[in-house]
From TrEMBL, chains A, B:
Residues 31-50 bind DNA. The lineage of its organism: Bacteria, Bacillati, Bacillota, Bacilli, Bacillales. PANTHER family: HTH-TYPE TRANSCRIPTIONAL REGULATOR PKSA (PTHR30055:SF226), HTH-TYPE TRANSCRIPTIONAL REGULATOR RUTR (PTHR30055). It holds the Pfam family TetR_C_6. Keywords: DNA-binding, Repressor, Transcription, Transcription regulation. SUPFAM superfamilies: Homeodomain-like, Tetracyclin repressor-like, C-terminal domain. The keyword Repressor applies. It comes from the Bacteria. This is Transcriptional regulator, TetR family. One of its GO terms (molecular function) is DNA-binding transcription factor activity.
Protein backbone atom coordinates (compact mmCIF):
# COMPACT_ATOMS: atom_id res chain seq x y z
CA UNK A 1 0.00 0.00 0.00
CA UNK A 2 2.71 2.58 0.74
CA UNK A 3 3.88 2.12 -2.84
CA UNK A 4 0.48 3.22 -4.18
CA UNK A 5 0.42 6.25 -1.89
CA UNK A 6 3.89 7.26 -3.09
CA UNK A 7 2.79 6.83 -6.67
CA UNK A 8 -0.22 9.11 -6.18
CA UNK A 9 1.93 11.61 -4.30
CA UNK A 10 4.46 11.69 -7.13
CA UNK A 11 1.72 12.21 -9.72
CA UNK A 12 0.51 15.16 -7.66
CA UNK A 13 4.02 16.64 -7.45
CA UNK A 14 4.41 16.30 -11.22
CA UNK A 15 1.02 17.92 -11.84
CA UNK A 16 1.91 20.81 -9.54
CA UNK A 17 5.19 21.22 -11.42
CA UNK A 18 3.13 21.37 -14.65
CA UNK A 19 0.99 24.14 -13.11
CA UNK A 20 4.10 26.17 -12.24
CA UNK A 21 5.52 25.81 -15.77
CA UNK A 22 2.21 26.80 -17.35
CA UNK A 23 1.86 29.86 -15.10
CA UNK A 24 5.48 30.97 -15.46
CA UNK A 25 6.23 30.14 -19.09
CA UNK A 26 2.96 29.28 -20.79
CA UNK A 27 1.34 26.13 -22.17
CA UNK A 28 3.84 26.08 -25.07
CA UNK A 29 6.58 25.22 -22.55
CA UNK A 30 4.66 22.41 -20.82
CA UNK A 31 6.78 19.64 -22.35
CA UNK A 32 7.49 16.41 -20.44
CA UNK A 33 11.17 17.43 -20.30
CA UNK A 34 10.46 20.88 -18.79
CA UNK A 35 7.94 19.51 -16.31
CA UNK A 36 10.32 16.70 -15.22
CA UNK A 37 13.05 19.29 -14.62
CA UNK A 38 10.67 21.52 -12.63
CA UNK A 39 9.52 18.50 -10.57
CA UNK A 40 13.13 17.49 -9.96
CA UNK A 41 12.82 14.01 -11.45
CA UNK A 42 14.35 12.41 -14.53
CA UNK A 43 12.54 12.29 -17.85
CA UNK A 44 12.93 8.50 -17.71
CA UNK A 45 11.10 8.11 -14.42
CA UNK A 46 8.23 10.35 -15.64
CA UNK A 47 7.06 7.25 -17.54
CA UNK A 48 6.21 5.57 -14.21
CA UNK A 49 3.66 8.26 -13.48
CA UNK A 50 2.26 9.29 -16.87
CA UNK A 51 2.52 7.35 -20.15
CA UNK A 52 2.08 10.43 -22.33
CA UNK A 53 2.17 14.23 -22.13
CA UNK A 54 -1.59 14.25 -22.89
CA UNK A 55 -2.28 12.03 -19.88
CA UNK A 56 -0.18 14.31 -17.68
CA UNK A 57 -1.94 17.47 -18.88
CA UNK A 58 -5.37 15.91 -18.45
CA UNK A 59 -4.47 14.94 -14.89
CA UNK A 60 -3.14 18.44 -14.18
CA UNK A 61 -6.31 20.05 -15.59
CA UNK A 62 -8.53 17.68 -13.63
CA UNK A 63 -6.66 18.59 -10.45
CA UNK A 64 -8.06 22.15 -10.71
CA UNK A 65 -11.59 20.82 -10.87
CA UNK A 66 -10.97 18.36 -7.99
CA UNK A 67 -9.68 21.12 -5.72
CA UNK A 68 -12.69 23.37 -6.36
CA UNK A 69 -15.06 20.42 -5.78
CA UNK A 70 -13.28 19.50 -2.53
CA UNK A 71 -13.62 23.06 -1.25
CA UNK A 72 -17.32 23.18 -2.09
CA UNK A 73 -17.94 19.80 -0.42
CA UNK A 74 -16.21 20.98 2.75
CA UNK A 75 -18.30 24.18 2.97
CA UNK A 76 -20.58 24.45 5.97
CA UNK A 77 -23.86 26.24 5.50
CA UNK A 78 -25.30 27.74 8.63
CA UNK A 79 -26.10 31.38 7.90
CA UNK A 80 -28.79 33.14 5.85
CA UNK A 81 -29.57 31.27 2.58
CA UNK A 82 -28.64 34.29 0.42
CA UNK A 83 -25.20 34.26 2.01
CA UNK A 84 -24.77 30.52 1.29
CA UNK A 85 -25.51 31.07 -2.34
CA UNK A 86 -23.03 33.89 -2.61
CA UNK A 87 -20.39 31.76 -0.86
CA UNK A 88 -21.05 28.90 -3.27
CA UNK A 89 -20.67 31.18 -6.30
CA UNK A 90 -17.56 32.82 -4.84
CA UNK A 91 -15.87 29.41 -5.02
CA UNK A 92 -15.72 29.86 -8.80
CA UNK A 93 -14.10 33.27 -8.45
CA UNK A 94 -10.35 33.76 -7.81
CA UNK A 95 -10.43 35.90 -4.67
CA UNK A 96 -7.41 34.26 -2.97
CA UNK A 97 -3.85 33.56 -4.21
CA UNK A 98 -4.56 29.82 -4.24
CA UNK A 99 -7.72 30.21 -6.34
CA UNK A 100 -5.95 32.70 -8.63
CA UNK A 101 -3.24 30.10 -9.34
CA UNK A 102 -5.95 27.54 -10.16
CA UNK A 103 -7.82 29.99 -12.37
CA UNK A 104 -4.72 30.97 -14.34
CA UNK A 105 -3.94 27.31 -15.01
CA UNK A 106 -7.58 26.61 -15.83
CA UNK A 107 -7.64 29.50 -18.33
CA UNK A 108 -4.58 28.12 -20.13
CA UNK A 109 -6.17 24.66 -20.21
CA UNK A 110 -9.50 25.88 -21.59
CA UNK A 111 -7.65 27.70 -24.38
CA UNK A 112 -5.84 24.45 -25.19
CA UNK A 113 -9.07 22.45 -24.89
CA UNK A 114 -10.31 24.08 -28.11
CA UNK A 115 -7.90 21.87 -30.08
CA UNK A 116 -7.44 18.90 -27.68
CA UNK A 117 -10.40 16.45 -27.55
CA UNK A 118 -9.49 14.89 -24.15
CA UNK A 119 -9.16 18.29 -22.45
CA UNK A 120 -12.35 19.42 -24.24
CA UNK A 121 -14.32 16.50 -22.78
CA UNK A 122 -13.15 17.36 -19.26
CA UNK A 123 -13.83 21.07 -19.81
CA UNK A 124 -17.38 20.29 -20.99
CA UNK A 125 -18.04 18.25 -17.84
CA UNK A 126 -16.81 21.10 -15.66
CA UNK A 127 -18.86 23.74 -17.53
CA UNK A 128 -21.96 21.61 -16.97
CA UNK A 129 -21.13 21.17 -13.27
CA UNK A 130 -20.72 24.93 -12.78
CA UNK A 131 -23.90 25.61 -14.71
CA UNK A 132 -25.69 23.15 -12.42
CA UNK A 133 -24.35 25.01 -9.36
CA UNK A 134 -25.66 28.29 -10.79
CA UNK A 135 -28.98 26.59 -11.55
CA UNK A 136 -29.19 25.42 -7.92
CA UNK A 137 -28.70 29.01 -6.78
CA UNK A 138 -31.48 30.32 -9.02
CA UNK A 139 -33.93 27.51 -8.19
CA UNK A 140 -33.19 27.98 -4.47
CA UNK A 141 -34.14 31.66 -4.78
CA UNK A 142 -37.37 30.51 -6.46
CA UNK A 143 -38.11 27.93 -3.73
CA UNK A 144 -37.44 30.54 -1.05
CA UNK A 145 -40.04 32.72 -2.75
CA UNK A 146 -37.60 35.61 -3.16
CA UNK A 147 -36.90 35.33 -6.92
CA UNK A 148 -38.51 38.15 -8.94
CA UNK A 149 -41.51 36.52 -10.66
CA UNK A 150 -41.13 38.64 -13.81
CA UNK A 151 -37.69 37.12 -14.56
CA UNK A 152 -36.99 34.15 -16.81
CA UNK A 153 -35.12 31.48 -14.81
CA UNK A 154 -33.23 29.94 -17.75
CA UNK A 155 -32.04 33.33 -18.96
CA UNK A 156 -31.01 34.36 -15.44
CA UNK A 157 -28.98 31.15 -15.03
CA UNK A 158 -27.05 31.98 -18.19
CA UNK A 159 -26.63 35.66 -17.26
CA UNK A 160 -25.34 34.82 -13.78
CA UNK A 161 -23.04 32.11 -15.11
CA UNK A 162 -21.63 34.51 -17.74
CA UNK A 163 -21.12 37.16 -15.05
CA UNK A 164 -19.21 34.74 -12.82
CA UNK A 165 -16.90 33.64 -15.61
CA UNK A 166 -16.46 37.22 -16.81
CA UNK A 167 -15.44 38.37 -13.32
CA UNK A 168 -13.09 35.37 -12.94
CA UNK A 169 -11.44 36.02 -16.29
CA UNK A 170 -11.06 39.73 -15.58
CA UNK A 171 -9.33 38.85 -12.29
CA UNK A 172 -6.83 36.81 -14.33
CA UNK A 173 -6.41 39.22 -17.25
CA UNK A 174 -6.94 42.59 -15.53
CA UNK A 175 -5.69 41.92 -11.97
CA UNK A 176 -4.91 45.61 -11.39
CA UNK A 177 -8.53 46.56 -12.03
CA UNK A 178 -10.52 43.50 -10.92
CA UNK A 179 -9.96 42.36 -7.34
CA UNK A 180 -11.69 40.19 -4.74
CA UNK A 181 -13.68 43.03 -3.21
CA UNK A 182 -15.01 44.25 -6.55
CA UNK A 183 -16.01 40.68 -7.56
CA UNK A 184 -17.80 40.25 -4.23
CA UNK A 185 -19.62 43.58 -4.69
CA UNK A 186 -20.64 42.77 -8.27
CA UNK A 187 -21.93 39.35 -7.25
CA UNK A 188 -23.83 40.68 -4.22
CA UNK A 189 -25.40 43.40 -6.34
CA UNK A 190 -26.36 40.90 -9.01
CA UNK A 191 -27.97 38.42 -6.59
CA UNK A 192 -29.83 41.26 -4.88
CA UNK A 193 -31.14 42.49 -8.23
CA UNK A 194 -32.77 39.08 -8.81
CA UNK A 195 -34.92 39.46 -5.69
CA UNK A 196 -37.58 42.16 -5.17
CA UNK B 1 4.02 52.12 -54.21
CA UNK B 2 2.58 48.82 -55.53
CA UNK B 3 5.47 47.09 -53.77
CA UNK B 4 4.34 48.46 -50.38
CA UNK B 5 0.75 47.42 -51.03
CA UNK B 6 1.93 43.91 -51.87
CA UNK B 7 4.04 43.82 -48.72
CA UNK B 8 1.06 44.76 -46.53
CA UNK B 9 -1.14 42.29 -48.38
CA UNK B 10 1.35 39.48 -47.80
CA UNK B 11 1.59 40.32 -44.09
CA UNK B 12 -2.18 40.08 -43.92
CA UNK B 13 -2.18 36.70 -45.69
CA UNK B 14 0.46 35.40 -43.29
CA UNK B 15 -1.50 36.68 -40.25
CA UNK B 16 -4.68 35.03 -41.54
CA UNK B 17 -2.74 31.78 -41.99
CA UNK B 18 -1.62 32.14 -38.35
CA UNK B 19 -5.28 32.53 -37.30
CA UNK B 20 -6.20 29.33 -39.13
CA UNK B 21 -3.35 27.36 -37.53
CA UNK B 22 -4.25 28.66 -34.06
CA UNK B 23 -7.93 27.77 -34.51
CA UNK B 24 -7.27 24.37 -36.05
CA UNK B 25 -4.25 23.13 -34.12
CA UNK B 26 -3.73 25.48 -31.19
CA UNK B 27 -1.17 28.12 -30.25
CA UNK B 28 1.46 25.40 -29.64
CA UNK B 29 1.50 24.76 -33.40
CA UNK B 30 1.85 28.41 -34.42
CA UNK B 31 5.48 28.06 -35.47
CA UNK B 32 6.93 30.12 -38.33
CA UNK B 33 7.35 26.88 -40.30
CA UNK B 34 3.70 25.80 -39.88
CA UNK B 35 2.36 29.26 -40.62
CA UNK B 36 4.55 29.58 -43.76
CA UNK B 37 3.25 26.23 -45.00
CA UNK B 38 -0.37 27.25 -44.30
CA UNK B 39 0.20 30.59 -46.10
CA UNK B 40 1.78 28.76 -49.05
CA UNK B 41 5.10 30.63 -48.90
CA UNK B 42 8.62 29.48 -48.09
CA UNK B 43 10.07 29.82 -44.60
CA UNK B 44 12.88 31.87 -46.16
CA UNK B 45 10.55 34.49 -47.61
CA UNK B 46 8.70 34.83 -44.27
CA UNK B 47 11.68 36.96 -43.21
CA UNK B 48 10.60 39.66 -45.67
CA UNK B 49 7.36 40.13 -43.77
CA UNK B 50 8.17 39.41 -40.12
CA UNK B 51 11.63 39.32 -38.52
CA UNK B 52 10.55 37.06 -35.64
CA UNK B 53 7.72 34.75 -34.62
CA UNK B 54 6.87 37.22 -31.81
CA UNK B 55 6.46 40.06 -34.32
CA UNK B 56 4.19 37.85 -36.45
CA UNK B 57 2.00 36.83 -33.48
CA UNK B 58 1.73 40.41 -32.24
CA UNK B 59 0.61 41.50 -35.71
CA UNK B 60 -1.91 38.64 -35.90
CA UNK B 61 -3.31 39.50 -32.45
CA UNK B 62 -3.52 43.19 -33.32
CA UNK B 63 -5.43 42.30 -36.47
CA UNK B 64 -8.34 41.07 -34.29
CA UNK B 65 -8.49 44.40 -32.48
CA UNK B 66 -8.22 46.36 -35.77
CA UNK B 67 -11.14 44.48 -37.32
CA UNK B 68 -13.40 45.10 -34.31
CA UNK B 69 -12.42 48.79 -34.28
CA UNK B 70 -13.08 49.11 -38.03
CA UNK B 71 -16.55 47.61 -37.60
CA UNK B 72 -17.40 49.97 -34.73
CA UNK B 73 -16.16 52.99 -36.70
CA UNK B 74 -18.32 52.04 -39.68
CA UNK B 75 -21.48 51.69 -37.55
CA UNK B 76 -24.26 54.14 -38.31
CA UNK B 77 -26.38 55.28 -35.42
CA UNK B 78 -29.86 56.44 -36.37
CA UNK B 79 -32.31 54.57 -34.15
CA UNK B 80 -33.27 54.83 -30.47
CA UNK B 81 -30.21 55.46 -28.22
CA UNK B 82 -30.80 52.27 -26.22
CA UNK B 83 -30.57 50.28 -29.46
CA UNK B 84 -27.27 52.06 -30.38
CA UNK B 85 -25.74 51.05 -27.09
CA UNK B 86 -26.79 47.46 -27.48
CA UNK B 87 -25.39 47.40 -31.02
CA UNK B 88 -22.09 48.84 -29.79
CA UNK B 89 -21.80 46.20 -27.05
CA UNK B 90 -22.81 43.42 -29.44
CA UNK B 91 -19.66 44.20 -31.44
CA UNK B 92 -17.67 42.59 -28.60
CA UNK B 93 -19.80 39.45 -28.72
CA UNK B 94 -19.26 36.65 -31.28
CA UNK B 95 -22.73 36.42 -32.84
CA UNK B 96 -21.54 35.77 -36.42
CA UNK B 97 -19.09 33.21 -37.86
CA UNK B 98 -16.61 35.99 -38.64
CA UNK B 99 -16.70 37.35 -35.08
CA UNK B 100 -16.52 33.82 -33.64
CA UNK B 101 -13.30 33.20 -35.60
CA UNK B 102 -11.87 36.46 -34.22
CA UNK B 103 -12.96 35.62 -30.67
CA UNK B 104 -11.44 32.13 -30.76
CA UNK B 105 -8.12 33.57 -31.92
CA UNK B 106 -8.38 36.37 -29.36
CA UNK B 107 -8.98 33.84 -26.57
CA UNK B 108 -5.86 31.88 -27.53
CA UNK B 109 -3.84 35.12 -27.64
CA UNK B 110 -5.03 36.34 -24.23
CA UNK B 111 -4.05 32.99 -22.70
CA UNK B 112 -0.60 33.38 -24.26
CA UNK B 113 -0.42 37.04 -23.18
CA UNK B 114 -0.10 35.91 -19.55
CA UNK B 115 3.50 34.86 -20.28
CA UNK B 116 4.37 37.11 -23.26
CA UNK B 117 5.06 40.77 -22.40
CA UNK B 118 4.48 42.16 -25.93
CA UNK B 119 1.11 40.42 -26.27
CA UNK B 120 0.27 41.46 -22.69
CA UNK B 121 0.86 45.14 -23.55
CA UNK B 122 -1.48 44.91 -26.54
CA UNK B 123 -4.07 42.97 -24.51
CA UNK B 124 -4.01 45.64 -21.78
CA UNK B 125 -4.63 48.38 -24.36
CA UNK B 126 -7.59 46.47 -25.78
CA UNK B 127 -9.08 45.72 -22.31
CA UNK B 128 -8.93 49.45 -21.56
CA UNK B 129 -10.53 50.32 -24.90
CA UNK B 130 -13.41 47.91 -24.29
CA UNK B 131 -13.83 49.19 -20.74
CA UNK B 132 -14.02 52.72 -22.17
CA UNK B 133 -16.75 51.60 -24.61
CA UNK B 134 -18.71 50.09 -21.71
CA UNK B 135 -18.16 53.30 -19.72
CA UNK B 136 -19.55 55.34 -22.64
CA UNK B 137 -22.68 53.17 -22.61
CA UNK B 138 -23.24 53.68 -18.87
CA UNK B 139 -22.52 57.42 -18.94
CA UNK B 140 -24.83 57.79 -21.96
CA UNK B 141 -27.64 56.18 -19.97
CA UNK B 142 -26.90 58.67 -17.18
CA UNK B 143 -26.91 61.65 -19.58
CA UNK B 144 -30.18 60.45 -21.11
CA UNK B 145 -31.63 60.48 -17.59
CA UNK B 146 -32.66 56.82 -17.81
CA UNK B 147 -29.98 55.26 -15.56
CA UNK B 148 -31.35 54.07 -12.20
CA UNK B 149 -30.18 56.68 -9.67
CA UNK B 150 -29.69 54.07 -6.91
CA UNK B 151 -26.97 52.27 -8.90
CA UNK B 152 -23.22 52.82 -8.64
CA UNK B 153 -21.85 53.74 -12.08
CA UNK B 154 -18.33 52.34 -11.56
CA UNK B 155 -19.65 49.02 -10.29
CA UNK B 156 -22.16 48.80 -13.15
CA UNK B 157 -19.39 49.41 -15.70
CA UNK B 158 -17.43 46.47 -14.27
CA UNK B 159 -20.52 44.24 -14.01
CA UNK B 160 -21.56 44.94 -17.61
CA UNK B 161 -17.99 44.49 -18.89
CA UNK B 162 -17.70 41.15 -17.04
CA UNK B 163 -21.07 40.04 -18.42
CA UNK B 164 -20.00 40.85 -21.99
CA UNK B 165 -16.74 38.94 -21.69
CA UNK B 166 -18.47 36.05 -19.91
CA UNK B 167 -21.04 35.74 -22.70
CA UNK B 168 -18.30 35.98 -25.36
CA UNK B 169 -16.21 33.30 -23.67
CA UNK B 170 -19.19 31.01 -23.23
CA UNK B 171 -19.93 31.35 -26.95
CA UNK B 172 -16.38 30.12 -27.62
CA UNK B 173 -16.24 27.40 -24.95
CA UNK B 174 -19.90 26.30 -24.81
CA UNK B 175 -21.11 26.96 -28.39
CA UNK B 176 -23.88 24.35 -28.09
CA UNK B 177 -25.41 26.19 -25.12
CA UNK B 178 -24.53 29.85 -25.75
CA UNK B 179 -25.67 31.28 -29.07
CA UNK B 180 -26.23 34.69 -30.65
CA UNK B 181 -29.89 34.91 -29.67
CA UNK B 182 -29.22 34.07 -26.03
CA UNK B 183 -26.38 36.61 -25.84
CA UNK B 184 -28.65 39.26 -27.36
CA UNK B 185 -31.42 38.44 -24.86
CA UNK B 186 -29.05 38.50 -21.88
CA UNK B 187 -27.60 41.84 -22.96
CA UNK B 188 -31.03 43.39 -23.62
CA UNK B 189 -32.28 42.20 -20.24
CA UNK B 190 -29.18 43.55 -18.51
CA UNK B 191 -29.37 47.01 -20.13
CA UNK B 192 -33.09 47.20 -19.36
CA UNK B 193 -32.42 46.31 -15.71
CA UNK B 194 -30.15 49.37 -15.42
CA UNK B 195 -33.03 51.71 -16.30
CA UNK B 196 -36.20 52.13 -14.22
Amino acid sequence: MPKIVDHDKQRLLVAEAAWRIIRKNGMEQASVRNIAEEAGISVGSMRHYFSTQSELLLYAMNLVSERVTARIQSMSFDGPPMEHMKQLLLEFIPNTDEKMAEMEVWYAFTAKSKTDPALKKLADTVYNDIRRAVEIVITSLVKLGIFRPDLNQELEIERLYALIDGLAIHAVLRPDQMNGQLMDEALTLHLTSLCP
